[in-house]
Amino acid sequence: MDNKTVHITGVTPGTALVTGATSGIGEATARALAAAGWRVIVTGRRAERLKSLKAELKQTFGVDVLTLAFDVRDPHQVAASLGALPGAWREIDLLVNNAGGALGLEPIDEGDVGDWEQMIDTNVKGLLYVTRIVAPTMVEHGRGHIVNIGSIAGRQVYANGAVYCAAKHAVNALSQGMKIDLARHGIRVTEIRPGMVETEFSEVRFHGDEERAAAVYEGIEPLVAEDVAEAVVWAATRPPHVNIDEIALTPRQQANAYYTYRN
Ligand code: NDP
Ligand code: 8X3
Fold this sequence. Notes:
Order of helices and strands: EHEHEHEHEHEHHHE
CATH class: Alpha Beta
CATH superfamily: NAD(P)-binding Rossmann-like Domain
Distance between the termini: 51 Å
Bound molecules: NADPH dihydro-nicotinamide-adenine-dinucleotide phosphate, 2-hydroxyethylsulfonic acid
């Protein structure tokens, strides 16, 4: 092949692990991967949702699905669930670290310490616990891909969001660090940084206040979970010599974390 020939051979679908697949971006990503022929391990705390997602993916796409209900904040649960995967599932080709979210939107002097702990424990420590179990098996096989779901809040800090932004800045730093440490083992690392995506994110952030959650998306057409899922699948299916370092995507009306044009 001469060097002007475009190399279009992608990655063959393998086994993917998606954390936080019970709703939103994680659920859409699991669905998009299954549609592309990947076998998927779907995780989250809500076991009933995992069960129905498994039934749907098996029936619609005919792929194997494994469900694992655990809390990413608990290193013992993470190790017990992922450290003892049944044989055929042990070799994970793609890890999508997606479980996470925000809680509260208050100035730093009024924030709730419990909310802060939950944000850091989920977005940062949970991502680390999962990676610590999965990465060694990728190292052992000399290949793999880790996709971390960050946020535009991982590069910019907005009012009343200091702790969520700090957690997503940590995801940004961890993604860079993982790439450095894992490159020698043939492992790819990608950070995907979405802006506003209409999922359960805002409902969770406002502790179930649906009206306040809906107001976040008033006057704009936000991203949908499938937009982000498509970015994950695209990054995961580039030819093996290519690493997509980062993808930032926002609604057309959102310029950055500080400015959104509303109708
Ligand atoms: P959702 O609230 O819809 O989904 C969050 C997912 O994370 C759920 O599946 C939830 O599962 C899982 N999760 C949360 N806490 C835990 C936990 N302790 N243990 C295991 N799983 C957990 O929100 P999104 O889909 O929007 O969020 C997905 C990711 O995208 C998050 O990291 C978020 O920060 C990021 N993001 C979201 C944006 C948005 O505007 N929506 C923009 C940029 C980034 P369960 O509750 O069943 O445990
Ligand atoms: C979620 C997007 O703008 O609410 O990460 O921080 S934002």
